[in-house]
Write a structure and sequence with these properties.
The structure holds two protein chains of two kinds. Chain A is mainly alpha-helical. Chain A has helices at about 1-5, 10-25, 35-40, 40-60, 80-85, 85-120, 125-135, 140-155, 160-165, 175-200, 205-215, 220-230, 230-245, 250-255, 265-275, 275-300, and strands at about 65, 70. Chain A has one domain: MetI-like (MetI-like fold, Orthogonal Bundle). Chain A has 16 helices and two strands. Chain B is about 35% helix and about 15% strand. Chain B is built from 13 helices and ten strands. Chain B has helices spanning about 15, 20-25, 55-75, 85-95, 110-120, 195-200, 215-225, 235-240, 250-260, 290-300, 305-315, 340-345, 350-370, and strands at about 45-50, 75-80, 105-110, 150-160, 185-190, 230, 245-250, 265-270, 275-280, 345. Chain B is globular and about 65 Å long. Classes of the chains: A mainly alpha, B alpha/beta. Chain A: It is found in: Cell membrane.
C-alpha cells in the first residue's frame, strides 16, 4: 500500500479531483467552445461599452427642455446640427485634431532617441536610469504632473526666476496653446517610448553593424535600416499618442487657462455645466467616430504596428 | 463673537420625549426646528452628507452650521466636495432610477438648484420653522414653495491689485480694456458673473436681457482681446497669490480669501454694476424618511441667526436673517450690501431667466473666448 501511495502522490489525486470537477462544470463536448470562453472577458468589456454607447446614442437624438431639464421624448438631429455648425465646437474640434497630430509628431521625434539609447546602450546603469525615469511619471497622476508645470512655468515659477537672474522680465509661459501641447508631449512621452522599445529591440544589432561594414555612415544606417525596421513601433506609438491626446481633458483644462479647450472639455461642459446630456452625448459619439476613423485610416495605410503583436506584417 | 447657543445640548432624548409642549416653549429650540416633531422624532442617521465647495467655503460651513449641528444632535456631518456641476447629474440619475441619492443636502447655486427644482428632484422645504424669520431673499423667485432655500447673497465684484492701478481704483469694467492688462485679467470660464455687467458696459440695457444681449457679447469680444485667464473659484485666489493676474471678476469671498492670505487685494462694484446672486440649500428626493427629517433640521438650523452669523462671517456675505452683524472688515463694503442704496448698484436677474438661457450664454461666451 505504501508503495502504491508513493507511486500515486496526493497532489496527483488532488489534480484528478480538480479535473473531475472541471469535467462536470465544462464537459468534454464543450471543449470546442473553450476558445470562445476565453473571449468572454473581452465580450463582457466590449458589451458594456456598446451598451453605454447605445444609451448615449439614444440621448444624442434628444434635445434638452429647459422648462423641465429633461430630454425630449421625440428624436431629432438637432444636437448633431449644433455640433457641426456652431463655431465653438468647430473651433474646439479643430484645435483638438491639429493639437493631437502635432503632439504625436513631436512625441515620436523626442521619444525615439530615448528609446533607442535605452535599448542599445551597453551600460546597464544608464539603462536602469532611463527605465526608472520612464516609469516614474506613471506613478504620478496626470493632474499632479500638470500642476507641476504650473509651479515651474508660472509667472513666479522656477523658469521665470531663472530668467530674472539674467535680466529677462517674467513672461507668460502658461495658459496658451503651446503650453498645452508641451504638457501633452511630456505626458505622452513614456507611452511612446514603451511602444517604440519593443520594435527597436526586435532589430538585431548585427544588421546595423552590417550596414556599417558595407560603408554606410550612421546617418544612412539610421535612415535606411533603423527607421524602416522601427516602423511598427512608430505606428503603434503614434496610434496610442494620437488617441490619448485627442481625448485628453486635464492638460488642456489646467495648462490652457480656460481658453484652449479640447473636445473632452467641451463634452464635460455639456454634461456638467449646462446639463445638456443630449448634446454632450452627441459630441462624445462624434469624438469616438472621428478617433475610430483616424485609427482605421492609420491601420489601412500602415498596419497596426506593434499593436498587432507581431501577427500582422506592417 | 459668541458662538451659537444650543439648549438641546443639555437635553437628553428621554427628556425631549417627555413632552413636545414643554419643549416647544423652550427658548431657542425653534432654531433647530425640532419643536414640532419631538413626539415622533425619527431615528437619527449616523451621518448626513452635505455637498459643499472646498477651501474657506467648507471651513465656514463647518464652523457655522455643521459642527454646531453635530454638537446639538450627535449626527456627524460629512462634507462631500464634489463640484456642484458634477454632483447634479449623479443626483438626477439617482432620483430617476429611484435610488437613494448620494448626498442628503446640496449646497448649490440658486441657478443650478432651480434646474433641479424644475426637473422635480427637490424636496419641498416650505415647512421649515425658521423660514418665518428670514427675509424675502430666502425664497427662490419663480418657483412654487421652497424647493430651495436661499441662504445668502453674493456679489461678483471687480477685484484688483492696487499696485496695478496706481491712479486709483478702477471705476468701470471698461478700465480692464487698458492694453497693460493684457493677459492679466481673470474671468469665470463660462463667463458667469460677467454677462450682465458686460451688457451695460457694452452700451446695452438690462431690460433687454435675455432678448438682446449683443452689447454684452460685443464687450466680451473686446475683453477677449485682453487674453483673460478663465477659471473657477479656487483659481482666482491662486492666480492672485502667484502674481498671474491684476484684476478679476469674481465672488468677493475669493478676493477676501486672498486678502486674508496677506495679499494686497481690494474690490469695487464698478459704475455699470455687478451681478448679485444667491446660493441655497436643497434636499434631493429619495431619502429615507428619517434622513429627510434630519436633513431638513440641518437646513432649518442653517437659516437660524446664530448659524448664519458664524457661517457668513467666514464667507463675508450677507445672509437671509435680519440683524446679522457684518464682519468688521466688510462694514460699508459694496460686496456686503445691506441698504437699498447699495442694492441699487447691483444687478439681479431672476433665476428662471438665467436657467432658461444659461446654456446659450455659456456657449456664446465660450465661443468668443475659444475663438
Amino acid at each position: 500500500m505504501k508503495a502504491a501511495r508513493t507511486a500515486y502522490p496526493i497532489r496527483w489525486r488532488v489534480m484528478d479531483a480538480l479535473e473531475a470537477v472541471a469535467g462536470i462544470l465544462w464537459p468534454r463536448f464543450f471543449r470546442a467552445g473553450t476558445p470562445y470562453l476565453m473571449l468572454a472577458p473581452a465580450i463582457l468589456l466590449v458589451g458594456l461599452l456598446v451598451l453605454g454607447l447605445w444609451q448615449m446614442a439614444d440621448a444624442s437624438f434628444r434635445t434638452l427642455d429647459t422648462n423641465t431639464f429633461l430630454l425630449s421624448e421625440d428624436y431629432s438631429l438637432a444636437n448633431y446640427k449644433r455640433a457641426v455648425t456652431e463655431s465653438l465646437f468647430i473651433t474646439v474640434a479643430g484645435r483638438s485634431l491639429v493639437g493631437s497630430i502635432i503632439v504625436t509628431v513631436l512625441t515620436l521625434v523626442i521619444s525615439f532617441p530615448y528609446a533607442y539609447v535605452m535599448v542599445r546602450t551597453p551600460s546597464a546603469t544608464l539603462r536602469k536610469f532611463l527605465l526608472i525615469a520612464l516609469f516614474l511619471p506613471f506613478f504620478i497622476g496626470q493632474v499632479v504632473r500638470a500642476y507641476g508645470w504650473l509651479i515651474i512655468l508660472g509667472n513666479q515659477g522656477m523658469v521665470n526666476e531663472a530668467f530674472g537672474l539674467i535680466g529677462i522680465a517674467p513672461m507668460r509661459l502658461l495658459y496658451n496653446y503651446p503650453a498645452v501641447l508641451f504638457g501633452l508631449v511630456q505626458y505622452m512621452m513614456p507611452f511612446a517610448v514603451l511602444m517604440l522599445a519593443p520594435a527597436l529591440t526586435a532589430i538585431p544589432e548585427e544588421i546595423e553593424a552590417a550596414a556599417g561594414s558595407l560603408g554606410a555612415d550612421w546617418v544612412r544606417t539610421f535612415r535606411h535600416v533603423v527607421l524602416p525596421m522601427a516602423r511598427p513601433g512608430f505606428v503603434g506609438a503614434g496610434l496610442v499618442v494620437l488617441t490619448l491626446s485627442l481625448t485628453d481633458f486635464a492638460i488642456p483644462a489646467m495648462l490652457g487657462g480656460g481658453s484652449q479647450d479640447f473636445i473632452a472639455n467641451a463634452i464635460y461642459d455639456q454634461f456638467f455645466r449646462t446639463s445638456d446630456q443630449g448634446l454632450g452625448a452627441t459630441l462624445a459619439l462624434l469624438l469616438v467616430a472621428v478617433g475610430s476613423l483616424l485609427v482605421g485610416l492609420v491601420f489601412t495605410l500602415f498596419g497596426a504596428g506593434t499593436l498587432a503583436m507581431g501577427r500582422v506584417k506592417a | 463673537m459668541n458662538g451659537p447657543k444650543f439648549p438641546l445640548n443639555d437635553l437628553t432624548r428621554r427628556r425631549l420625549l417627555q413632552g413636545a409642549a414643554a419643549l416647544g416653549g423652550a427658548a431657542g429650540l425653534s432654531t433647530l426646528g425640532v419643536s414640532r416633531a419631538f413626539a415622533q422624532e425619527p431615528e437619527k442617521p449616523a451621518e448626513l452628507i452635505v455637498r459643499a465647495w472646498g477651501g474657506s467655503w467648507v471651513d465656514s460651513l463647518k464652523a457655522g452650521v455643521s459642527d454646531p449641528f453635530t454638537k446639538a444632535t450627535g449626527i456627524a456631518i460629512r462634507h462631500d466636495l464634489t463640484e456642484d456641476n458634477e454632483i447634479q447629474p449623479k443626483v438626477w440619475a439617482a432620483v430617476a432610477q429611484k435610488r437613494v441619492p448620494p448626498i442628503h443636502i446640496n449646497w448649490d447655486t440658486t441657478t443650478n438648484a432651480t434646474k433641479s427644482a424644475l426637473r422635480g428632484v427637490t424636496e419641498d422645504l416650505s415647512d421649515l420653522p425658521n423660514l418665518k424669520n428670514t427675509t424675502d431673499l430666502s425664497k427662490p423667485v419663480g418657483l412654487d414653495g421652497y424647493p430651495i432655500v436661499n441662504t445668502y447673497g453674493y456679489v461678483y465684484v471687480l477685484a484688483y491689485r492696487p499696485e496695478a492701478f496706481p491712479n486709483g481704483a478702477p471705476k468701470s469694467w471698461k478700465d480692464l480694456l487698458d492694453p497693460k492688462f493684457k493677459g492679466r485679467i481673470a474671468l469665470y470660464n463660462d463667463g458667469i458673473g460677467f454677462h450682465f455687467p458686460a451688457q451695460v458696459a457694452g452700451g446695452g440695457k438690462l431690460e433687454d436681457i435675455p432678448g438682446n444681449m449683443q452689447p454684452a457679447w460685443d464687450f466680451v469680444a473686446k475683453m477677449k482681446e485682453q487674453s483673460p485667464l478663465l477659471g473657477e473659484d479656487p483659481d482666482f485666489t491662486t492666480w492672485f497669490q502667484k502674481g498671474e493676474i491684476d484684476a478679476a471678476c469674481t465672488i468677493s469671498t475669493n478676493a477676501r480669501e486672498a486678502r486674508k492670505a496677506g495679499l494686497d487685494i481690494k474690490w469695487v462694484v464698478p459704475e455699470e454694476g455687478a451681478k448679485y446672486d444667491t446660493d441655497g440649500l436643497w434636499i434631493p428626493k429619495g431619502l429615507p424618511e428619517n434622513e429627510l427629517y434630519w436633513a431638513k433640521q440641518y437646513i432649518d438650523f442653517a437659516i437660524s441667526k446664530d448659524a448664519q452669523q458664524v457661517w457668513l462671517d467666514g464667507l463675508g456675505l450677507p445672509g437671509v436673517v435680519p440683524g446679522l452683524t457684518p464682519p468688521a472688515d466688510l462694514v460699508g463694503d459694496p460686496s456686503y450690501p445691506t441698504t437699498e442704496e447699495e442694492f441699487k448698484h447691483l444687478i439681479r436677474i431672476s433665476a428662471k431667466v438665467q436657467v432658461e438661457n444659461e446654456s446659450e450664454w455659456f456657449s456664446k461666451f465660450k465661443a468668443i473666448m475659444q475663438g
